[in-house]
Amino acid sequence: MKSEKELLDDIKKGDRSALHQLYSRYVGYAMAVGLRYVPDRDDLNDVIQDSFVKILSSVNRFEYRGEGSLKGWILRIVSNEAINFIKQKTKFSFVDEFPDEIEEQVPDVDKVPPQVLNQMISELPDGYRMVLNLYVFEQKSHKEIAEMLDIKESTSASQYLRAKKLLASKINNYLKNKEYE
Asked: With b meaning 16 or more CB within 10 Å and e meaning fewer, what string describes 86-117?
């Protein structure tokens, strides 16, 4: 497999097969990132298509900064497109939904299969899911999240806390149910 640098060089030379290789190499990662924000598969396909149109049309202007920088750039575009999609398509709201029983014990996330954890995250209310993803996976500060979503910094922090508690409750329920299987 070619390095990112070699792939970019081929693209800049006009090699159309290199564009296909770029898509093939990164579409799976893009789907995983997009799925964090857009749980509906049809909507996700639209986001991925829009993302790759943007990626493929601007890849010649991408500044290579070392192995992994291309992948990071691609995934940043996908997450931005997904966030924009959610902001445009749905009037997502920030809710005060708490689980019936808030558990203080930190669940053992390592015992939950990744696909189950992703499903739990996708079931969170939109506002919770957006803030959780931006804070945990994109490593944005609450100040950055507030600016991106046009909310107060304190709203971002409280949504994250609520998302974390609701997710912990879901994980603990899952682990309890697994004990009895």
From this structure: beeeeeeebeeeeeeeeeeeebeeeebeeeee
Asked if residue 99 is part of any domain, the answer here is no
| Confidence band for 8, pLDDT divided at 50, 70 and 90 | very high
Name the maximum alpha-carbon separation found in the chain.
59
Note if the pTM is more than 0.90. Answer: no
Which pLDDT value is given to residue 105? 64
Give the pLDDT score at 126.
84
Task: Give the number of other Cβ atoms within 10 Å of residue 37's Cβ.
Answer: 27
Phi and psi (nearest 5°) for 56?
A: -70, -30
12: Cβ–Cβ under 8 A, 6 or more apart, which residues? 60
Alpha helices by DSSP H, listed for the chain, are 4-12, 16-37, 41-58, 69-89, 114-122, 126-132, 142-149, 153-179
Q: What is the CATH number of the domain that holds 122?
A: 1.10.10.10
Task: Give residue 15's domain range.
Answer: 4-89
Rounded to an integer, what distance in angstroms lies between the CA atom of residue 120 and that of residue 166?
A: 10
Structure token digits, residue 136: 């945990």
Tell me how far apart the terminal alpha carbons of the chain are, to the nearest angstrom.
43
Token look-up 């564009």 returns 19
